[in-house]
Amino acid sequence: MNPQAEKIIKALNLKAHPEGGYFSEVYRSDEKSEGLPDRYTGHHVQYTSIYFLLNENDFSAFHMLKSDEIWHFYEGTALNIHVIEEDGSLKTVTLGKNTEAGEVYQYLVKRGLYFAAEVRDKKSFALAGCTVAPGFEYGDFEMPKKEELIMKFPQHVELVKRLTYE
């Protein structure tokens, strides 16, 4: 494990995340959202935020949320976020600090899209933040199996194989 990543994991008390990498919830709004669209069940807080770290060969497996999620770059190497758009096309955005190379400090992943993330430099790590509104609930999270995504998006078979779990 990258020594700097190990220090950050300890300092921020990050735990293993089901989609890959490490996370810690930083904030959960104390106010509830009312009148949410039918895709949600139950009440949700207005928003949540987490720290999220990917180390070396870790990846955030393809998954989908019912809410929009904003990714924020903090430290380390650049992070590729792969998004499968509604029309099945693939968009890759690089979260990082080298704006001259087209990297961005923040990126919004729209609700209902499958997406995955990985570090560009496999000898380094990336520390990001993720803000979800309405707030994240595990019932709003879908992480399909590899075969399911390959059937839906055969044009991205190699990427799906590399960034999903069984």
Strand order of the largest sheet: 1-2-5-12-7-10
- Output the CATH topology: Jelly Rolls
| SSE run | HEEEEEEEEEEEEEHH
How far is it from the N-terminal to the C-terminal residue, by CA? 24 Å
Integer average pLDDT: 94
Would you state the CATH class? Mainly Beta
Rg, alpha carbons: 16 Å
Count of strand segments: 13
Descriptive keywords:
Jelly Rolls; 5-stranded antiparallel beta sheet; 13% helix; 166 residues; mainly beta
What does this molecule look like?
Strands 1-2-5-12-7-10 form a six-stranded antiparallel β-sheet, covered by helices on one side. 13% of the residues lie in helices and 42% in strands. The chain is mainly beta and 166 residues long. The chain has a single domain, classed as Jelly Rolls (Sandwich), CATH 2.60.120.10.
What's this entry about, in short?
13% of the residues lie in helices and 42% in strands. With 166 residues, it is mostly beta strands.
Summarize the SSE layout with pairings.
Layout: H1 3-11, E1 15-16, E2 22-28, E3 32-33, E4 44-45, E5 48-55, E6 59-65, E7 68-76, E8 79-84, E9 90-95, E10 106-109, E11 114-119, E12 125-133, E13 141-142, H2 146-152, H3 157-162
Antiparallel strand pairs: 1-2, 2-5, 3-4, 5-12, 6-11, 6-13, 7-10, 7-12, 8-9, 8-11
